[in-house]
Design goal:
Strand order of the largest sheet: 9-10-12-11-8-13
Order of helices and strands: EHEEEEHEEEHEEHHEEE
Largest sheet: 6 strands, antiparallel
Distance between the termini: 42 Å
Length: about 260
């Protein structure tokens, strides 16, 4: 993949990051082995509408493989963040060294409206269960730089979407975006303090995937990016927990029951 700046004018980092999270979430809830049309690959977030993210196939390609779009958006935006170059850009998506699609991150242009993929968080069509995710700051939580929190969440969305959104999460899991990003998300094994469930509802990857955007908005609204705990509740049943932490997963390897505060 190649990242090519289109303009030197800066674009708001938060607008790019939130729109990328929405795009990755929408694509991640689809079958990653399937393809989507260009109309299904246009993304814009109402509260940060200055930015659009569009995945455009290169002829003779007609549709875009969801897996490829996920990887191209994630690594393209992560590259922007690593070098702190939030500008209009094009990411060239390569498959077997062939440029099969481009991702365009652009400022919104005046002109006729186009169909935009709705935010998956605002859609009711994808949910058959009553899902609630609660967020709290961990006691004595350490601050996490905003961009690192976003990239860590985006990496989690990427990882979960490639496992299959309807697959059941089993055992302890973690996601770590790599050495450039000093944060991780941990999903402790709940069997230490809750019985293993043997009937629905179960904790699925899509619940974890869909929790990333509201977790980031929770921190944006509180104007505090720091370590937090997620509680997953489906149909009134607490199914599991997650922790966004500073550092690598071994720092909290012995965590059993997260200790939280609401401050």
């Amino acid at each position: 993949m190649r990242v090519l700046p289109l303009e030197t004018h800066p674009v708001g980092p938060t607008s790019i990051l939130v729109t990328a999270v929405d795009a990755l979430t929408a694509i991640g809830l689809r079958d990653y082995t399937a393809q989507s049309s260009p109309q299904e690959m246009r993304f814009q977030t109402p509260a940060w509408s200055e930015v659009t993210v569009n995945v455009i196939p290169k002829p003779p390609t007609v549709n875009i493989l969801n897996q490829l779009a996920t990887l191209c958006i994630y690594y393209g935006v992560a590259n922007m963040a690593e070098y702190n170059e939030f500008v209009e850009a094009k990411f060239e998506c390569l498959w077997d060294n062939v440029n099969v699609a481009d991702v365009h991150v652009r400022r919104k242009r005046p002109g006729p409206a186009v169909d935009i993929t709705p935010s998956p968080i605002d859609s009711t069509e994808i949910l058959t269960e009553a899902i609630q995710t609660q967020f709290s700051y961990i006691e004595d939580s350490q601050p996490i730089p905003t961009i690192i929190a976003f990239i860590t969440a985006m990496n989690a969305i990427k990882s979960f979407s490639l496992k299959g959104p309807n697959e059941i999460m089993i055992g302890s899991l973690f996601t770590d975006p790599g050495p450039h990003w000093d944060a991780s998300i941990i999903y402790p094994d709940g069997s230490g303090h809750r019985p293993i469930r043997r009937q629905p509802p179960f904790l699925k990857y899509r619940y974890a995937l869909m929790s990333m955007r509201p977790a980031l908005l929770f921190m944006l609204q509180h104007r505090r990016f720091a370590e937090i705990v997620f509680l997953f509740i489906v149909d009134g049943v607490r199914l599991g927990d997650a922790l966004l932490i500073k550092g690598k997963p071994d720092r909290m390897a012995n965590t059993v029951e997260p200790s939280v505060s609401t401050a």
